[in-house]
Amino acid sequence: MRIxxxxxxxxELKETGFGSHLACANVVESIERIxxxxxxxxxxxxxxxxxxxxxxxxxxxxxxxxxxxxxxDDIWFSEYFAKNKIIFSGSDRETLKYDSDKVLAKSCLxxxxxxxxxxxxxxxxxxxxxxxxxxxxxxxxxxDAANGNGIDDLSFVENFNEYESKVLSLYxxxxxxxxxxxxxxxxxxxxxIIENDTGKILASAIEITPPESSGGLRIxxxxxxxxxxxxxxxxxxxxxxSIVDLAIEAFIALGIRGFGRIDIKMDSNRKCxxxxxxxxxxxxxxxxxxxQACKIANNMPYDKxxxxxxxxxxxxxxxxxMPIYTHSADNYSPLAH
Length: 337
Prior knowledge:
Elements: E1 2-7, H1 21-34, E2 37-42, H2 46-55, E3 59-62, E4 66-67, E5 75-76, H3 77-83, H4 93-100, H5 102-111, E6 119-122, E7 138-142, E8 156-157, H6 160-174, E9 178-182, E10 188-195, E11 201-209, H7 222-227, E12 231-234, H8 237-253, E13 259-266, E14 272-278, H9 289-298, H10 302-314, E15 324-327, E16 332-335
Parallel strand pairs: 1-2, 1-3
Antiparallel strand pairs: 4-5, 6-9, 7-8, 7-9, 10-11, 10-13, 11-12, 13-14, 15-16
Helix pairs in contact: 1-10, 4-5
């Protein structure tokens, strides 16, 4: 199979994606070890995308959601390749909106009865001290940023002055309403989910513990993620079901295709809540949550994670061009058509 990994120049990594070009190279090398021909294409112009289409790869793996365009609308890779009849990995443009807009995802899941933290959105000056929708403490973050951007100890607010200051700071930085959530003081989890073409789901859940700050908080913000100072660990068997069940319910309700990562947090009573969905998960070997969750929870090496992620994608490629891989806990075998 001829596979191209498609990414853009998004050095700020505001949006979710496989990560840096090094992370994309990790994926390329893994796909080649599996037995396919893989190349990395960094797309910075429409001409770059036209060239990809002209090369007619069997499959494109989308390592980013879109290509920024100066003085124009961003070009979403999923939309572009769908129009040009090139098969691509992951979810379609309509579903990816749940990754880019945390409020939209929360609203969708709330409407079908899936638990998420109470929330509202705010702009500077919108609320007075006594008309906030619910009481302190609150937690504030950007609606559309990923990788912990905009999140730090000041995201946790206990009074109206702190609230106003953080709302103003985030609004000035992102020029969008700010997401305000009830603060959940419990533990934090992430669940890597891979679904094959038959609908079989493999879920890998782990706990994430940020380091304690000088203020006694454990905030999973940009600095923690940048320097990998958080701890990832296996979850006790007695707790896994409630976490995994919630993640799978959210995965299905949002209409996610192929793979995605669901973040979950507990309150002080150990009840689980959906927090957000990451539909183009980080793939940096040795540090990104998605492959690390698969390794910690299900003892899966990086290449096995990549192979499973490819399975659903390859099922959509013309049958005469592809093998379909079945998998067990320990091995894979190609099936003839």
